Amino acid sequence: MGSTAHSSSDTKHIHTSNHKPTNGPITKPIILHLGEPVRYNRTLHSQLSSKYEIIRPLPSSLQRSAFKKHLGDKTWGDFSAIMRPFWNTGGEMGNWDRELIELLPTSMQVMASAGAGFDWVDTGVLAEFGILYCNGAHASTESVALMALYHIISVFRHMTWSSLAARSNDAAEWTTAHQQIPFRSHNPEGHTLGIIGLGNIGHAIAKKVKAALGMKIIYYDVIQKTPELEREVDATFYPSKEEMLRASDCVLIATPHTGRPVLDAYTLSLLPAGARVVNIARGVCIDEDALADALESKHISAAGLDVHAQEPRVSERLSKMFNVTLTCHTGGGSIETAVGFEKLVMQNVEAVLEGREALTAVNQRLVDGHASRDREPTNGVKVNGETRNADGSVTNGETTNGTRKAANGTASTAVGNT
């Protein structure tokens, strides 16, 4: 595979200055490993590397312009999978949009990454080309749920105000907080928590809140959960987000970003006076200026945010408010989460490459919805210009005159394996 340097985990750094694709037959499918080497699940990684060729490019190769060139030149060959075991490395190329995705080889089947959120990758475009995207949601559930619990307690009991006053080393500030907080804070017990998004993380939060805080749980989601899941947390479903907000003493956002803020000036106005807001999903799920306005008007009494719209920058207005608890998007930040992310990434890749069902595919329905795909199966053969599978069926996706066509007939400029 050209000049390589081995890391402690025995994956390969490809020196892009002199690396050339292998011309002979490849005996193992290739996995492209983005980011730092595996740290925790080394036995699993060893098992994976015994069955697959794992290539880990140099960090300099991951900058967007260089990364695009290497994909176009097929520097790393016809890889079948991409794995990114750590959320904070391996993303140097920026968002995975159509520009990047259309450069992937037709052998590509699955992309698995650490992290629960996936707003940085266009899973719809991946699905056009039959590529599954698997996230690490299950691995971070416990850590994120604990962070949510912290923020919920903080917005009811004004923990940030108390902490800042204690750290001020100012007797007057200490005394003010000591005397005033008891007449402004409430115990969460008996209050209503409205959860937007009762997925794995939302449900885990509801379980902790019910058990530890004794709050009433109501929720809004695009799909009502099963009676069994609702009974586990005594949750009541609201088919209308607006109606749920009107009934909430505290609203918690635990849903993926869909392109528009979940809470804006209008929806914040629907909350009862003195309500509280907690966000552990994505910063852009809240219009932060509208939230600051609602806090300044005292319509909202407190807010807790682990995520921010312009990370790593935090809203200047919100950062100055003593009734706003802010953390640095560390909801999922624990060793246990990192171990779980790493493991889940490798398990997802292995499952898909072995023909089994992925553990955490987020775009499975979209992939299934594309009956015809621009993907050449490894066992397919060309017959009269068509790709025929082992069972004789024809793959309708095609590459013609340097243009790659997805299953829906849309064309994109093909660079690389055409």
UniProtKB/TrEMBL annotation:
InterPro entries for this protein: D-isomer_2-hydroxyacid_DH, D-isomer_2_OHA_DH_cat_dom, D-isomer_DH_CS1, D-isomer_DH_NAD-bd, NAD(P)-bd_dom_sf
UniProt key word Transmembrane: no
Pfam families from the UniProt entry: 2-Hacid_dh, 2-Hacid_dh_C
GO molecular function: glyoxylate reductase (NADPH) activity; hydroxypyruvate reductase [NAD(P)H] activity; NAD binding
Domain D-isomer specific 2-hydroxyacid dehydrogenase NAD-binding: 152-331
UniProt similarity note: Belongs to the D-isomer specific 2-hydroxyacid dehydrogenase family.
Name recorded for this polypeptide: D-mandelate dehydrogenase
